[in-house]
Structure formats: C-alpha cells, structure tokens
Amino acid sequence: MKAKGTVISSIHNFVKENFNGQYDQFKNALSQESKAIYNNAILATDWYDIHSGVIEPTKLIGKLYYNGDVKKAAWESGYYSAQSNLTGIYKVFVMVSTPQFMMARASKILKSFYDPTLIVVFDKGDKFMELHITEFGYPNEVLEWRIQGWMQKALEICGCKNLDIKITKSMARKDAITAFKINWE
Predict the structure, then answer these.
(1) pLDDT digits (tens, 9 = 90+) for 10-36
(2) Are 95 and 79 within one domain?
(3) CB-based contacts of 134, cutoff 8 Å, min separation 6
(4) What percentage of the chain has pLDDT greater than the value 70?
(5) How many domains does the chain contain in total?
C-alpha cells in the first residue's frame, strides 16, 4: 500500500509546527527507510511506502511526544492533515457541503491519499452516517485512527457540532471491514 506525498508532508509539517525545535530528534530516530523519505524533498504527487512514510513515523510521534500513545498521535496528525489541507477553495467547498455529501466524497478523497482503498456510505440520516472501508491494502489501526481524526476535522469544517466518531469494526483487528459510526448535532 502507498500514501500520497501530501500525507507524508502533513506528518512532516505536523511535527515541525507542534513540537517546536524537536524535528531533528524525530528525523534522527527514524529507520533508514523512513529517513530516506523524510531527509529528501517530499513531492506532493509522488507515492510513498505506507509503512516507512506513515505508520512508522506516526508510531514514533506517539513514542516521543504523546507518552507512547500512538492512537492519540495518529488521530491528531489526521486532524491536522484535514485542517491544513482543506484550505482555500477546498475549505469553501467543505463549508457549503452537507456532512452527508462530504463523507460520501470521502471515497474519492481517501483514494487520492491512500492506494488501494475503498470507502462506501453504508447508512445515513439527518444526524448520522456509517462509512465502511471495504478495501484497504495494508489494514492497520494507525491508518484507521488517522482517518478518524481527518473525518473529525472535515466534519467540523462542515459545521457539525458534538461529533462522535467510533470505529466499530476494524480490518486491522481481522474484521471484514472497517466501520466508522458518526453522529453529530
């Protein structure tokens, strides 16, 4: 499985902006494979190995800056990614979209970040949705938590309040799908 350069760049920028002066500590602690990515120019349109580019660096962020809490590191970096990437014309688009429309577009959005991946709307109503990832080339909780954080911020930009996003099934835990149950006011 691969991740687009925009995902890698968001992790790079997340560490630089949130852990002032500690980016070198982060880079120096990476494996050689991850260093090969983070020590070079990260091209937004290129595809990178998911483990070396996203999973390992996110686990390291959890270890270094969140007292070992990888879930928090993944969620926060996903939230940051939506906050920084859904800007300009994209932010206007998201702000005028309904939550249902925005999350229905998640399949195309996620496909542009992670390959292969397929996410579908399983159920929806006025104040809830259930999304299923039915294809994920490298099932991993780090990626699921990151997507959960991204969804949180994207839906906040849509105007959703009191969001509750739960991962009720997980391909990483050997379920057939990853299911996100989303409720809001």
Answers:
(1) 999 999 999 988 999 999 999 999 999
(2) no
(3) 118, 119, 120, 177
(4) 94
(5) 2
pLDDT of 89 strictly over 60: no
Q: SS3 for 181?
A: strand
Report the candidate in 85, 84, 83, 104 with the shortest Cα–Cα distance to residue 157: 83
Beta bridge partner(s), residue 3: 48, 114
State the Cα–Cα distance between residues 158 and 82, nearest whole angstrom. 12
Query: Which pair of tokens denotes residue 46?
Result: 């290129």
Nearest to 157 by CA among 72, 66, 93: 93
* Amino acid residing at 5: G
Residues 179 and 97 reside in one and the same domain: yes
CA distance linking residue 74 with residue 170, whole number of Å: 15
**Residue 6, pLDDT score:** 93
